[in-house]
Amino acid sequence: MKFKAQQIADILEGEIVGNPDIEVSKLSKIEEGTEGSLTFLANPKYTSFIYSTKASVTIVNKSFQPENEIKTTLIKVDDAYESFSKLLEYYNQVKNNKVGLESPIFISDTAKYGDNIYIGAFSYIGENVSIGDNVKICPNSYIGDNVAIDDNTIVFSGAKIYSDCIIGKHCVINSGAIIGADGFGFAPNENGEYSKVPQIGNVIIEDYVDIGAATTIDRATLGSTIIRKGVKLDNQIQIAHNVEIGKNTVIAAQTGVAGSTKIGENCQIGGQVGIVGHITIGNNVKIQAQSGIGRNVKDNEVLQGSPALPYGDYNKSYVHFKNLPKIVKNINDLEKNKWE
Fold first, then answer.
1. 320 carries an active-site annotation
2. Which superfamily is assigned to 100-314 in CATH?
3. What is its EC number (predicted)?
4. Which of 98, 117, 137, 198 is the most buried (most CB within 10 A)?
């Protein structure tokens, strides 16, 4: 799809400097701009590229004044980075604004759905499913029995939502995500074998939650695994049964959270963090990448390492760890001199 510079300026409430009728049909980095592309300049260290870029249109701050001749048409705004982000969001809305039911799909006779929905080819919609207005379910998706998906949620291709799960408004579930698979529940018997414990709960995902590609959220044994409002989960994360994650917490890729752990609000958890089961992590906690959490964590703690230490203590200890060979040598020399 093509947009004129003036159309973009109107969306961003910006000022045109150059040709208002020039058209763009793609986005680019400023250093990789080509004819017909739109880019932006927000970081001063990239300023030199505005004189060489071949991008047709560039979004800049109102304070920008070119020192040399430029060929790109400018759109001047209060905040170039924020405006470009706004434009990306608008572009996504336009790109994903498919409507209707493709073929072939299966929709149960007992399923109910709202207005302006999209269901892509080869998708399955089970018994008693409820789908709200403006929901987009992309091709090859599976929606199990008794699932509820609220308004304005997007389910990308290949995602699987098992039976009885509840998905809120304005959520994004990326490709390959699996919501509501059985929790890892097995009990040893007298023969040393393991018997499966039935997992009969569900997953509840509240509003404005983003779930990354290939992330898995297991259903509860009893009750619900709960992802609160505004949570953002990266790709390839494992959330076990009966976990609860507080609102506006963000978790980076390849983190695993074991069963029945409660994570508070506004936490920031780095990639490849391992969190044991049946503990409580407070609000506003920050956990550095590759940390191992094996205990309860109080509000506002900042942790690093495995097992995790307070962030300042970890850094002090690491200084000594790096010098450990030297320290050992010094001790050995002292011991040797002692007996000479």
1. no
2. Hexapeptide repeat proteins (2.160.10.10)
3. 2.3.1.191
4. 137
